[in-house]
């Protein structure tokens, strides 16, 4: 299982039997659960109407415990992969739920792993582990697969605006306002925390930077790629088509950024997560 910030498409979730813990957010005066009560597209439309009303919170230990109970009906082994502990309290909530369920679920082994990631790079780790499990691998090998992917997966995000990024707490609000006025578009990555990669002056230059980095890392070898966007489906599809045409991609899919991430990055954000090799 993993949380909804992993941005896994619904078809992959269903195909591989992955449990998704929805992240909670408040928008328009109502509490919503990511992908349960509202789709990302619907959430972004509300966000654009009143961005300052948007608030987020991690899933509660009770929500994780309920997911463990449900999983225990099907398996004696549960691997829960969470958003980076440097970005959210999800990991701590999952651990607390495991401790709360120790007496109730004595025959179930529950392991909680910090992905060090966010967005579809987190989802890729969960997907790789699920594929190993569905292939009949022992639980130790499933966890080893997740740890291996955690070391290998990378993410690059291009923000179309700096207007909302102050919500991450990484830069002051006044700095984001100045950056937005100067039309500075940052490129970011995640490795435990959000890290700055550089800037671009236009969307096209930002996309070229993403593709250049992907080429440097992948060369002509196989690379597994997820294209993720915040309310920018046409841009995401165009990027997917370029990657499909120019790279050796055994896996390539498009998904939407969880609104929990998008509220900080703003609409128009475009990114890729990827790892090379098998």
Name a few traits of the molecule.
10 helices, alpha/beta, 278 residues, Hypothetical Protein Tm841, Chain: A,domain 3, single chain, 41% helix, six-stranded mixed beta sheet, Rossmann fold
Topology:
Elements: E1 2-3, H1 10-16, E2 20-21, E3 24-27, E4 30-33, H2 40-49, E5 55-57, H3 61-72, E6 77-82, H4 90-100, E7 109-114, H5 120-134, H6 139-152, E8 154-158, H7 173-181, E9 185-191, E10 193-200, H8 203-218, E11 223-229, H9 233-246, E12 252-256, H10 259-265, E13 270-276
Parallel strand pairs: 1-2, 6-7, 11-12
Antiparallel strand pairs: 3-4, 3-5, 8-9, 8-13, 9-10, 11-13
Strand neighbour order, sheet with most strands: 10-9-8-13-11-12
CATH architecture of the largest domain: 2-Layer Sandwich
Q: Please state the structural category.
A: alpha/beta
Say what the CATH topology of the largest domain is: Hypothetical Protein Tm841, Chain: A,domain 3
Mean pLDDT metric = 89
Q: What is the CA-CA span between the terminal residues?
A: 22 Å
Helix content: 40-55%
User: How would a textbook summarize the main sheet?
Assistant: 6 strands, mixed
What is the count of distinct domains? 2
**What is the molecular shape?**
globular
Radius of gyration, in Å, reads 18 Å
- Using DSSP, what is the number of strands? 13
Determine the strand fraction and express it as a percent band. Answer: 15-25%
Number of helices: 10
Oligomer: single chain
Spans of 5+ residues with little confidence (pLDDT < 50)? 170-179
CATH class of the largest domain equals Alpha Beta
Give the helices and strands as they follow along the chain: EHEEEHEHEHEHHEHEEHEHEHE
